[in-house]
Amino acid sequence: MALHPISYLLPDDFDLQQLKSSFKESHGLREEVPSKVKLTYYDSFDWRVWNAGGELHEEQGSLNRLCWHSIKGRKEPLVQVIDQSPGFAKDLPAGALADQLASVLEMRVLQPKVHVIQQQQTLALLDSEEKTVVRVVLEQNSYASIDGKQSGRLEGRIVLKPLKGYLSYFEKIVEYLKAMKLRNCGQSLYQDALQGAGIKPGDYSSKLNYRLDPYASADSAARQILLDLLNTLEANVAGTKADLDSEFLHDLRVATRRTRSAMSQIKGVFDPQQLEPFKRGFGWIGQVTGPTRDLDVYLLKYDQYRASLPEALQGDLDPFYSYLLNHHKTEQAKLVRKLNSPHFRKLLKTWREWLEESKVDLENAPSANKATAKLADKRISKLYARVLQDGLAIAPDSPAEMLHDLRKDCKKLRYMMEFFQSLYPKPAIRELIKALKVILDNLGEFQDLEVQAHSLEDFGSEMLKEGAPASALMAMGVLVGRLFERQANAREEFANLFAAFSSDGNQKAFRKLFGGA
Amino acid sequence: MHILGVYNIKGGVGKTATAVNLAHLAATEGYRTLIWDLDPQAAATYYFRIKPKVKGSNKRLIKGKLDLDEVVKATDFENLDMLPADFSYRNMDLRLEEAKNPTKQLLKLLRPLSQAYDYVFLDCPPSISLVSENIFRAAEGLLLPLIPTTLSLRTYQQLLDFLEGHRITGLELMPFFSMVDRRKRMHLDVMKNLPDEHGELLKAQIPYASDVEKMGIHRMPVQAFAPKSIAASCYQALWLEMQRRLG
User: How close B117 gets to chain A, by Cα (Å)?
Assistant: First the structure.
């Protein structure tokens, strides 16, 4: 059985002497030397540890230890001795904690969120052998933000720590403190510290989650959506520039893509002439961030690529990895220059200003005052009809372009459904988004594998110029073959998947939710 | 999880003091550590002020009806837990004989603890028995305190023969001199000659010291009551060398 400490708030008028003397009556008592511990709490930028019900901290001492506590499920903590501050899960010493973090974090890096300094005074309650049976720890804690700009004291705590094998003693002390009417701490020390530093756990998520008013004007809904996407984009700029992990750039690009899609698909709510320079601007962001992301993708996939080759060839692929790393460095430097450019900064600034000033020009934006729900129904049902028509027209021998076009439309449809999902019954719209995702995954695989195969060929010619060994190119050739094979499989699966997507049941569900013929 | 046995066929060689002090050092450094007192004499259990069990858990243990986790007790030191001695361990050989895979029972019992501990120290009963064979098969390494006498060396050779005879390989043997008395001519002679024949011998040595004996009075590891003593620094050296040896 896992034993967990119980924490109570320490009242300001707490009488420590009285507590000690009453402990002395029932047990032996030893006061340990007061100690000071520094904890640093970690999570990914998008709070994956927190979302998984965990709290992760590094405790600095003669050995540094990284500890994972599960808030849900009350499991035993996972602990790992570390010799450098934690970053990526793959760089941690092998063990249960590294496994847990690998599945929670995936490609994301850990970042410090807040520091806690604990001043502890421990009272050890002893049995007749003078063996400790319960620890009562009085804690004075303070927090400090990572940049050091904010710090302050937290409420004092009195923590009862059970010892394995001495549960009955623990239970008696719990009863005793209950009788003293101490209040349980409502939240963990981490939550206290985050609150003190003004940080809300889960304050960033790349998922779309708007609460829209169905009767509000469509133009205000569009502004709300676009402003939120702009916030997401801006939140990822610093991490992208610093190249902390590949997900910052990814989220920045997704926000860019969604912005472009919203601009073109939420039709008639803005003056197209005023929108035009921004459309061009976001197109430019998509363009300049592309090369680094491409290389990120290959670097992320590298292990998988390598493993897909016959064992004898796996080592031959290594020059490709060095090539990717080198070029990534170059492209990243170029990207940082673009993100630091006045053009980029001005674009985001004017875009925000434009979104925040709510001038409606009905002549050039005829749908601006329409009810949001009405516009959403109309646009989504129209896009759905197009997807259905294009998809059903695809035969086994249709050219690849038709599938690529279908993918674009499916993406537009998905974004629109996600932007406006709060206007529809949750289970119904989730179900349809899920059905659409299946098709999108298939189309994505079909196109991405082709792009990857062609890029590998291009990389190969580049590497040849840079003097890479023939063996590397041959290994890459085998890889290209594998990718085309998988692409052919995806093409074959399409017909069945689309048949399922366009089933009568789904068509009915779409019509029921969004109207339309 | 590193499982280490502290063992000698002969008793009274400083075995329990070694297990207790090394386990304490590991825990002090932050490693989650378990010490299992397998010796029915219960000296390690006594050092940690834990009351030994009188009624047996060993029967239920071997029959798989009891998790080790249920009998673990926390010591007074952070990160250091103990499986206290049980008087019924004196019959453990009999119980083991009844089990299906009699030489691998201990390993089977310890396996579920692998996520909970970084180091497990087994304080072994003296003698060669089914219990010791279990320990040899469960452990990654054996710490072997040797008093530098000819008799002591004979028992070490007996152990080597036993291991070879039972095809127990891959066990990291870490003999070291214990209860060294530099005033004794014989100790000095043995210590001079042995290293040539046995490259596995650790360089760290534990002297015959009153601070080690005082562990029984203070009922705690040397480091906890005499951190600056020679004995404490010798155990520290042993701990460091052992870690290096295990890689």
Answer: 9
